């Protein structure tokens, strides 16, 4: 389970995890410098795939299924390119190809996502407004609050800066998508404002034999909007462990 940017593994939805855990042993971790993971100094984006590969090798679980969310959805594709022998199947959820061919969110969305100002409550409200469509959020606020209003590992601002730098300097893998030779399922919400839905089309058109699944009115936080439905879709794709 490969987390996205600016977050720790605490952000995985518990219902989504519990449903997947009915069939699979789940391995969650924090990217370098984030949450409980050590690491300092600048690094290239490809290092994140190297880190994932190192963990798979250390646990002796390869080839294994991998699922990445947001930035993690890009990392798992890079992992499949660089270490195909360690990867069984890939789910790229709200990922993109990186570089100039990726469709980025409007500047105001990225600024709101990385804005450190305000109280923790105000920061949380900003995040929720970006993760979910407003109509869905209003109708399901009690569940969302139960998911997000819980202790999480602290995040070092310097680690955030290093991660953002690695993301923006990444040339991307658009020209290499055709070389991915493991099964890939791309999952995209049609109402995702952080990873615009066009990115799903780019990945699906570039990766031979890939599946593209669109969730109507799905936001960037799709795992909390449709935790059981999404998890069972993943289980159908991965099959038996």
Give your account of this protein's structure:
- The chain is α/β, with parallel strands linked by helices and 241 residues long.
- Helix content is 44%, strand content 10%.
- The chain has a four-stranded parallel β-sheet with strand order 1-2-3-4, with helices on both faces.
- Strand 1, helix 3 and strand 2 (87-93) form a beta-alpha-beta unit.
- The protein starts with 13 loop residues before the first helix and ends with a helix.
State Rg.
17 Å
- Order the strands across the largest sheet as they lie in space: 1-2-3-4
**Protein structure class:** alpha/beta
Distance between the termini: 14 Å
Work out the helix count. Answer: 11
The overall strand count is 4
* Average pLDDT: 93
The arrangement of helices and strands along the chain is: HHEHEHHHHHEHEHH
Fraction in beta strands: 5-15%
The residue fraction in helices comes out at 40-55%
Shape: globular
Low-confidence stretches: none
Q: Main sheet? A: 4 strands, parallel
């Amino acid at each position: 389970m490969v987390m996205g940017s600016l977050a720790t593994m605490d952000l995985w939805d518990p219902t989504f995890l519990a449903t997947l855990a009915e069939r699979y042993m789940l391995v969650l971790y924090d990217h370098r410098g984030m949450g409980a993971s050590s690491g300092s100094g600048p690094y290239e984006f490809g290092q994140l795939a190297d880190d994932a590969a190192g963990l798979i090798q250390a646990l002796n679980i390869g080839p294994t299924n991998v699922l990445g969310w947001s930035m993690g959805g890009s990392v798992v594709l890079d992992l499949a390119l660089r270490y195909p022998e360690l990867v069984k199947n890939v789910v790229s959820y709200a990922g993109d190809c990186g570089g100039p061919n990726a469709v980025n969110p409007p500047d105001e969305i990225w600024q709101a996502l990385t804005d450190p100002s305000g109280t923790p409550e105000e920061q949380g409200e900003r995040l929720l407004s970006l993760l979910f469509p407003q109509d869905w959020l209003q109708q399901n606020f009690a569940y969302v609050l139960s998911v997000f209003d819980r202790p999480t590992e602290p995040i070092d601002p310097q680690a955030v800066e290093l991660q953002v730098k690695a993301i923006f300097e990444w040339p991307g893998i658009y020209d290499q998508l055709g070389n991915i030779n493991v099964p890939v399922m791309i999952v995209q919400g049609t109402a995702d404002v952080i990873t615009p839905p066009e990115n799903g089309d780019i990945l699906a058109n570039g990766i031979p034999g890939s599946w593209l699944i669109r969730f109507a009115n799905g936001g960037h936080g799709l795992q909390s909007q449709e935790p059981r439905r999404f998890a069972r879709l993943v289980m159908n794709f991965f099959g038996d462990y």
